[in-house]
Amino acid sequence: MMAFLVVFLLACIGYILYFHRGSNYPNDSIRMRAIEAIIQTTRYGVIETDLNGTILIFNPAAEKMLGYRADEVIGRVTPAIIHIPDEVITRAQELGIEPGFDVFVKNPREKREVEAREWTYLRKDKSTFISFLSISALRDENDHLIGYVGVFEDITDLKEWQAAQKIKDEFVANVSHELRTPLNAVMGLSKLIEMESDPAKIKDNAHAIHLSGKHLLDIVNELLDFSKIQASQFQIEEVPFPLIKVFTDCHAILLGFSEDKHVTLHFDYHQIGEDQYVEGDEIRLKQVINNIISNAIKFSEGGIVDVYAAYKDQSLCLVITDDGIGMNETVVRNLFKPFYQADGSITRKFGGTGLGLAITKNIVDMMQGTIEVESIVGKGSTFRLTIPLASVVQEENNITPAILPLQMFGHRYHVLVAEDNLINRMILEQILQKFELNVTTVTNGKEAFDSAVKNKFDLILMDIQMPEMDGIQSTKMLRENNLSVPVIACTANTSQEDQNVCLISGIDDFITKPIDIATLNAILNKYLKTHDS
Fold it and tell me: For the domain that residue 388 is a member of, what is the CATH number?
């Protein structure tokens, strides 16, 4: 960009000198008319001044960018009218001179060099844009200084793009760090288990691996959620649920985290009745509440986090207050922007992908709610949420089922597992064996179909993406051959569209990877006859 502007600047200088000197050569005249046409039609602004800074040329591009007509400025004012005074003062201090026109032309005049730098330009309507300006001195045939010419371009969009790229690069580096930290734990602890003989230490290490895996899953889910939001595929469900359960679950989940951070966590949701059912998305509401409270805990180490919740006028009112590090106005203003990181050192200390609050704001907006933030540096922050949730009458089918104890089936049932990944197949087989189930494994949908035709199975756990034949096609063939065995999709595809495709193909239900044992237990209890006690 700078090199092109300098070349264009030199062409302008040639034209202007020709204009001042005149010429009797026809070829020179044609060349100069061509350059004049370029100056009049170029997208670059061109301003020529005399030695005192009075404007002599103000081309159409300059008019368009700055909002002044040429006849308003030529011979009347200097380029100082388009500059921010503070920037001029700062540059004067750098050069060791008094603020004024000399700030722009000192180096071109004394060092005979092109002065190229960024400036904030002030339009006639007082709005601003970022400009890249190149200035050169004009000299006659006797090398006498006769004036100055500047060529400039609006680079606001470029600067915004560069800033966005920088933020994204920092985000990628941050996510890489966030992924590598738990991965290091998984790989290191699993190696220690191989070398460990103490059962207690093996159990502790296995538990730590599980926690690291859960952290990895949280990061992946955040990235997937953000991707869905960007693609307008993020959906909010409308189903009845007991509102108080959201807060009892969040309290239970966050209590351990707060203890680890030595944070006193106060939950006050007593104004929400035990029988208060509302219609909305329970999972996404928990996600919003967990995101905000976990952030408050994270930035309030050793402090206090207060959570107050009430339900009135068909809306959930939530106030979350902490006495943590707080935020300045700039951080608060950018808090819900994706990839935004207030401070690299804070990010390194406290972790996170920088997407949690952006996702939270999107969910709240989709729920037709509002979220407000007040914060003081060094004193803490307060988040206020209001989310409309229509009250519904509790019905029998609204009652949330209790978590079932892990069911032992006494080897009475035979389950077919179709999974192409060796480790995933081994994990699922061993989990099912813990439930006292008989297990047969195959590696693709074709083998699953062939095995189901030849053998009687009580349930099929079917991966969706497999070589040779996928789980969708395999299930369609099973149904076409009148095999009614329950088929459960066991898949990493979590979108509603993927789930709909599964159900249309004849699949009865689905469970997402990584496998949650309690969820698998509920699926097994739903589709297999439980062992008679």
Answer: 3.30.565.10
